[in-house]
Amino acid sequence: MTDIFWNDELQRWAMDEAPTQSNEYSSSPEGAASTIASKNIVSERNRRKNLNDKLLELRGAVPRISKLDKASTIKDAIDYIQDLQEQERNLQAEIMELESESLKKDPGFDFEEELPILLRSKKSRCDQIYDHRVPMSHPIKVHELRVNSMGENTLFVSLTCSKDGDAMIKICDIFESMKLKIITANVVIVSGMVMKTVLIEADMGERDNLKIKIERAISAVSDHWST
Amino acid sequence: MTDIFWNDELQRWAMDEAPTQSNEYSSSPEGAASTIASKNIVSERNRRKNLNDKLLELRGAVPRISKLDKASTIKDAIDYIQDLQEQERNLQAEIMELESESLKKDPGFDFEEELPILLRSKKSRCDQIYDHRVPMSHPIKVHELRVNSMGENTLFVSLTCSKDGDAMIKICDIFESMKLKIITANVVIVSGMVMKTVLIEADMGERDNLKIKIERAISAVSDHWST
DNA sequence: AAGCACACGTGAGAC
DNA sequence: TGTCTCACGTGTGCT
Question: Which InterPro entries would you find in this protein's record (chains A, B) (predicted)?
Fold first, then answer.
């Protein structure tokens, strides 16, 4: 593997310390030609070393390396740069949403698809950054799950559980996977507990069904929990 | 500038289309040796072309280019990657700040006057706009009032009532008048109902007291205005 | 002219 | 075994 480089470096060192113009074929047997040839040789050697050092440094700057090739290094760098650019776009979009969310002042107006930002921002950030790093940790320990009817076709869901590992991400995943008609969603973490409050458009007859669906979805991602 | 590459490409094309083994010095004048030599030559040529293409693609992915060198391309890519990483860190820190600003998570800290933003914004907005316009309307018809304990010193209050007149303003007034240590507050109006979700710093022993206090405050406001 | 950047062909080593 | 990757020395062209 790296022995290649080391061998080559040693070779280069040896030739550097002994600049014997070994293979000069003496088109004109003057000493000047050989000296400019060796100058060229050592210059080229330095240029190559510089380029290889840069390439190695580039490899060090890229966290995900597929192979140790030169081409793979560059390809990984390209992919990583594109990933970073996309992540930067997502983060800036999320910041925009958060800023406009923090000074959102008129509740009950047009929050049909503006308010589930919390779920969408979760998908665009946590999934790409943390999801593959923490694939499966503790199961979710549900502390309380309530489903109440509000008005005629609105259900109010409140789910609190202990914040173990990535419980918040899992909860968001659960609610996202259920394809509900979410009106508003709110997640709060306080004193080791994560609480999610969701308003869903549904008939009040679906209240008990929804509770069972949520429980099943939770048990699907976490094996067991204590009521 | 790029004429260098083009010239080289043309040279390569010419040599590709006419694979005349021009400079075979015939160490052994058999055809096999020359064929494997040319195989090596064209293979190396493809490898170099691939690497150069990758490098060119990398240059295309980096927006800021200092020079058109190979080494400069790699160096610019490294600098750009480090810039992106630092920007990503900054953006994530900003998001963390925004998130923890919108939902303050540490009970018992210093959120006495930072977190009731919702109430303060209400006061500075609703009071000035609506308060003197609709001073007396219907009493508040409470649909549900729950007070649960969350963790050790946190109470979770959920109050839903019919949105008659300025129920939302009254509710905000009620919660503001109680001088509670509010961690987060959330108000949602949907289908003729107004729902307020509040997290309060308090001992769980105060749960029932708080419920009674809220009920009395509601009745006090309602009595004072219309009932 | 001296310096620089590049592509080329070639032998060597690793898989 | 062949195939892949690499560093090397060299010639060429640009500045």
Answer: bHLH-TF_ACT-like_plant, bHLH_dom, HLH_DNA-bd_sf, TF_AMS/ICE1/BHLH6-like
